[in-house]
């Protein structure tokens, strides 16, 4: 869970339920921050469109995540676009209601710590993208995006282009690295689908610091 259980319960109780299908934009880059979303079930991806049109995949988030909170508190427009990867259930709170709860429940410190965690995560990811070979970047991206803890097969929910957007690689390079993992029985791939068949081995590969077994 991205926030404490106590904070989640307070925000969850104040929100209204909304359901979204796969591929729906729930927050859009550049739009006013009028509300926050609590992700109850399902997964979403956050992406940034640069001035030249290039798209960067910033993160994949799962249940227990607070979406859009920093923009609301900072009075800024949305800094990224959030799109559902699969059907999702969310709770929505207006910006005014969210800010009131933060003040009355003294949640500022927890939200600041959350923001700092996200900044550190982003710094680690940028450092990996700048310094690691393609094989390690793809392996670590798959772990980060889809298989942080489970040992069961995982549908990444992202295609090769999107994995490339996360680590600064072309689709062809990602395809080549996925082919190596497929030969080792770690993943299976079909059109626009990547299935991690052995998450434990993938995590071990990422922890080893090498892209190949």
Describe what this molecule looks like in 3D.
By secondary structure, the protein is α+β, with helices and mostly antiparallel strands. The chain has two domains: 118 residues, Jelly Rolls; 77 residues, Arc Repressor Mutant, subunit A (Orthogonal Bundle). It is 44% helix and 24% strand. The protein has a four-stranded antiparallel beta sheet. It starts with a helix and ends in a 5-residue tail after the last helix.
Strand order of the largest sheet: 1-8-3-6
CATH superfamily of the largest domain: Jelly Rolls
Sheet/helix structural class: alpha+beta
Write the CATH fold name of the largest domain.
Jelly Rolls
Described by the principal axes of the CA atoms, the overall outline is: elongated
What is the CA–CA distance across the termini?
A: 32 Å
Whole-number count of domains: 2
Helix content: 40-55%
**Unreliably modeled segments:** none
Main sheet properties: 4 strands, antiparallel
Radius of gyration: 18 Å
Number of helices: 8
* Mean of all residue-level pLDDT scores: 88
CATH architecture of the largest domain: Sandwich
SSE order, one letter for each helix or strand: HEEEEEEHEEHHHEHHEEH
CATH class of the largest domain: Mainly Beta
Q: How many strands? A: 11
The proportion of strand residues reads: 15-25%
């Amino acid at each position: 869970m991205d926030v404490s259980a106590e904070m989640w319960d307070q925000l969850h109780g104040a929100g209204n339920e909304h359901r979204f299908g796969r591929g729906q934009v729930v927050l859009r880059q550049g739009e006013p921050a009028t509300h926050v979303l609590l992700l109850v079930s399902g997964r979403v991806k956050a992406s940034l469109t640069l001035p030249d049109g290039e798209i960067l995949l910033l993160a994949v988030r799962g249940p227990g995540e607070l979406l859009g909170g920093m923009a609301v508190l900072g009075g800024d427009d949305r800094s990224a676009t959030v799109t559902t990867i699969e059907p999702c259930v969310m709770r929505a709170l207006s910006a005014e209601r969210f800010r009131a709860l933060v003040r009355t429940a003294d949640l500022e410190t927890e939200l600041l710590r959350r923001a700092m965690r996200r900044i550190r995560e982003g710094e680690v990811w940028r450092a990996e993208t700048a310094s690691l070979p393609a094989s390690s970047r793809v392996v670590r991206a798959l772990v980060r995006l889809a298989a942080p803890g489970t040992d069961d097969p995982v549908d990444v929910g992202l295609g090769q282009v999107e994995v490339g957007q996360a680590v600064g690689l072309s689709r062809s390079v990602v395809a080549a690295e996925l082919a190596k993992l497929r030969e080792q029985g770690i993943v299976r791939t079909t059109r626009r689908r990547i299935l991690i068949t052995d998450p434990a081995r993938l995590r071990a590969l990422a922890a080893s610091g090498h892209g190949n077994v």
